[in-house]
Amino acid sequence: MDSDVLIVGAGPVGGYLGKCLAEQGIHVIQIEEHLEIGRPFQCAGLVTPSAMDKVGLHDTTLTDVWGARMHAPNGSSIEIGNPSQIREHVVCRKRFDEAVVRQAINAGVELKLGTQITDAVLNDDHIAVTIRDEAGEQTLRTRLLCGADGAHSWVRSHARLGRPPETMIGFQVEAIGYPGLDGILDMYTGFNIAPGLFSWVIPNGDTHRIGIWVRSRDVDERSCEMLYDYLTKSSMFSERFSDIQEVARYCGPVPAGVLKRTTRER
Ligand SMILES: Cc1cc2nc3c(=O)[nH]c(=O)nc-3n(C[C@H](O)[C@H](O)[C@H](O)COP(=O)(O)OP(=O)(O)OC[C@H]3O[C@@H](n4cnc5c(N)ncnc54)[C@H](O)[C@@H]3O)c2cc1C
Question: Is the pLDDT of residue 266 over 80?
Answer without folding.
Answer: no
